[in-house]
Structure formats: C-alpha cells, structure tokens
What does this fold into?
Amino acid sequence: MKSYRTEQDALGEVRIPQQALYGPQTQRALENFPLSGTPMPCHFIHALAQIKSSAARANQQLGLLAEERCQAIVQAAEAISAGRHDDQFPIDLFQTGSGTSTNMNMNEVIVHLAKQQSGLLLHPNDEVNLGQSSNDLIPTAIHLATLQRNPSLLQAISHLQETISAKGEEFADLVKCGRTHLMDAVPIRLEQEFSGWSAQLEDARERIQHSASELSPVALGGTAVGTGLNTHPRFASLCLQQLAELSGVMLTEAPNHFAAQASVDRCAAYSADLRGLAQVLIKLCNDLRLMNSGPVCGFNEITLPALQPGSSIMPGKVNPVICEAIIMLSTQVIGLDTAVGLSAQSGQFQLNTMLPLVAYNLDQSQLLLHNACRVLADKAIAGIAVNRQQIAQSLSRNPVIATALVPRLGYDLCARIIHRAMEQQRPILAVAQEMSDLSEQELRQLLDPEPLTRPGTE
It folds into this structure.
C-alpha cells in the first residue's frame, strides 16, 4: 500500500507520496494539471538546475547565503543537472504560464536532497529561490537549454551537408534532365542538383547560428516584473559568470528587463529558423522521392537503400520510408513553430504566459531536426545508387534540349522544332537538321548535353 506524508504550504496541508523528493506545491500542480501526461523536457530541467547552482554561488559571494547552505544547494542542483533525479519532475508542460510550478518543483527537490545529503533544512523560497522569480528564471533557462543543444544541431546539419557533397562528387560526370514545374527542362549535372541541396542547408545552418547568438541576453535579474525587486543589483552578473563556468555558455543580462520578460521574440525568431530548416528537408526529401519513383513507371533516376518491405499486400514493393518519415517530422516542426509564434503574442503587460510551451517546443524541434539530419544522411543519402542507363535514355529523348539552339535559330523556330519532334516522336537533331541550315556536325556540337551544364566555359 502506498504511504504518504503531510506537508504544508501557504494554502494548507497537502498529502505527498512518502518517497517523493518534491513538496506541496509540486503535488498541487500534479493534481491541477492532469492534461497531457508530458512533463517538461529533461534537458530543460538540467539547465534550470545549473542556474540554481550558479544562483546559490552568486548569493554566497554577495554574503546573502552562508557557505554551508550554498554548498548544500550546489550539491543537490548538480545531482539534478547530471540527470540522477529526472523522475522527480513530473509536472505537465501545460501548467501555469510562467512555469512557476516547475520552478517550485526544482526548489522543493533541492530542499529535500539537501536535507538527505547534509542534514540542513533549507527554505525553497527564501534560500533556493533567493534573488529570483519564475518570471526571470524560466525565460533564462529556456535560452540556456536552447543554446546548449544548438551546437549538436549545427553539427548534424554539417554532417548532412558533407554526406550530400560527397555523394554528389561521385556523380560529377553525370548529366540528366533538369525539371521545372515538374516538366522537362534543359540539362543539369546530378552533382549540381546535389550542390543546391547542400547550399540550402548551409543557408539554413547560418540562419540558425545567427538567431542562436541572439539568445545570449537573458531576463535574469528582473525578478517579478523587470524592476529587479528583492534581488541584489550584482546578483544577475555574478550568477551568469558562475553559469558560464559551469555550463560553458556565455549569457549576458538583458539591457531591458521589461522586454526580456514580457516577450519571447528571440525564441520565436530562433524557432522560425528551425522551421526554415524543416522546409529545406521537406523539399530535399520530396526531390529524392520523385527521383527514386518507379522502378518502371516513375523517374527511376536513383535507387534509395531498401530498408524494409513496403507493403502488406503487394510483394516485392519497397518504399522511400526515410524520406516519408523526415517529411512527417519536418511537418511536425513547422507545427511546433506555429505554436511558438502564437505564444509570442501572449505577452500581456509584464509577462509572457506561454513559457513552458515555448520551452518544450524548442526542445522538441531541436531534437527532431538533429535526428532527422543524421538519419537522412546515414540511411538514405549515403546509400544512393544511380541508374545511369535510365538517366541517359531520358536525356536523349528530351526535346527541350533544343533551347541550346535559340542563339543560332531564334526562339520561334526552336519552338516549332520541339513541337514537331514531340508530335513525330523523333530525335531533336534529325528534326533540326530538316528545319534549319545547320550541319549535323554543328548540331551535334550545339546539342551536346555536358557543355550545356557549364555555360560560359570553354
């Protein structure tokens, strides 16, 4: 039979599971918000614990917290940030909009751990939360957690870029039909097609890197409404110095605390750039799916790795499952960004009250996109095989290659040549020889596909 203990907060007595490290405010939140069953991300909880540890050290430096009490907080917070107590943070992400429930969850767990480890009885508000408010602490933790995960995302994007570039170099000599509006167009080298994807990813990576740099200013020091009530004037700067040493992330105190606490504009900008990466991945995967389509009735230009049977009813069918999964994932990221964008509108007066949702969605988007880039690179791009015969046959039948004759014959005559070749299902070279005064040798030179992919070169 489950045993309970009774603790008291400002609203009265609360029954709490005997083995729980949290206290009454956490228990109330668990009872108040049985909504999704999804707690705040562990990565965010670890970042929040790092700030608590740094805050204790700052308050000890300021003479506001005795050394032994500071060390008790630090020891407990370090255990939390190391992931040893993740199960003690069960509050639903859909909770009070400031994240106060999660902040108090952290304070209460630190109090109980400190009592276990050192025998000291700390106060969750007066000591663990000294100089802080959920209103400046939670936004700061969002920025910290996002910046901590950002390098691994950038590395994953680079890995995908490098895999695409390496695969493209394998096909440097291969010319294929270009396509616009999904219709035949002038020739392009497969390497050039791959380079376009790589450049899109590089642009997305640079945008994410830039918007991440805009997350450095944080709300810490503003306390309740941005005025800094009940905190030491030097608290924020000292805490952020300690945090830089602990986390390796350099944050700065926001120049205007009222903006920092009333808005999540910088988070929304970062999320929008994550959405931009998701859009690139969708375009890339759709191109791959079309190029892989077939094997008989589609483009059949490439073959993606066969990873699993594709149908429960059609034997032998293999589908582009990685591309489909990445498209779904990227669509989800776009949805997460939409929610962040709507959250950015919810900064009434001195506080944005959608902070837990912003924290969760940024964490999920980063995680999903990181995994998407890795999986797409390793399970799809790296194993692409090219169907050279199919590509050559399609290119040889492409009438739009007559575009290369426009400088010599003019647009109108070339259009007539193309239409006749298509109607009669004959090669462009033969029809052009009939309808123009160019020799076969000249036509072969002008219609050679490879030089057409390198205009302006000798």
User: Anything to note?
Assistant: The mean pLDDT is 97. The chain is about 60% helix and 10% strand. The chain has three domains: 4-130, 149-216+256-389, 397-452. The domain at 4-130 is CATH 1.10.275.10 (Fumarase C; Chain B, domain 1).
